[in-house]
Design a protein that fits this description.
This protein has three helices and four strands, in the order E-H-E-E-E-H-H. It is α+β, with helices and mostly antiparallel strands. The chain is globular and about 55 Å long.
Length: about 160
């Protein structure tokens, strides 16, 4: 489980005038996740000192074709498990055989923490949203019987 997530550096840059960005019909957005530099470190928790696997990350969002800007985050995440041998995970990771379940937990935590910040930064820079935003589609109700919605809420 992820017990700590930190951002240590944020870099964002736009290479052209925001008006030029708005004139572009298609801008490809490339996401690059790099998990690196594992270390076994002590971590103070509410349950006392625990040993965790610290994994550094770099998460880049590149606006390409044309190259109009980028957003980059760096930091680290701490992984803890009662059941897993952290030394074995680190050894496997360093050998290029990182456990996918640990990688997925770190990457999903990273994206869920950084996506809102990336959307805000992209908006302030005049770039397209860094992450896809949901599309809302209100449809006209059909004449006749009113629509009912079942919920699990009973108040």
């Amino acid at each position: 489980m992820i017990v700590n997530f930190k951002v240590t550096q944020v870099e964002s840059k736009i290479y052209v005038d925001p008006e030029e960005v708005r004139r572009q019909k298609n801008i490809n957005i490339n996401y690059d996740i790099n998990l690196k530099n594992t270390a076994i470190v002590p971590k103070q928790t509410p349950f006392g000192e625990k040993t965790v696997l610290r994994v550094e990350y770099a998460f880049s969002i590149n606006y390409l074709s044309p190259n109009v800007g980028h957003i980059r985050f760096e930091g680290y995440s701490d992984y803890y498990s009662d059941e897993d041998d952290l030394n074995q995970i680190k050894s496997d990771w360093d050998a290029g055989k990182a456990p996918s379940n640990v990688q997925n937990q770190i990457a999903n935590t990273m994206v869920s923490n950084l996506a809102p910040l990336a959307v805000t930064l992209s908006s302030k820079l005049g770039l397209p949203p860094a992450m896809p935003l949901p599309a809302i589609n209100f449809q006209q109700k059909k004449a006749g019987k009113p629509e009912t919605v079942e919920t699990m809420y009973h108040g």
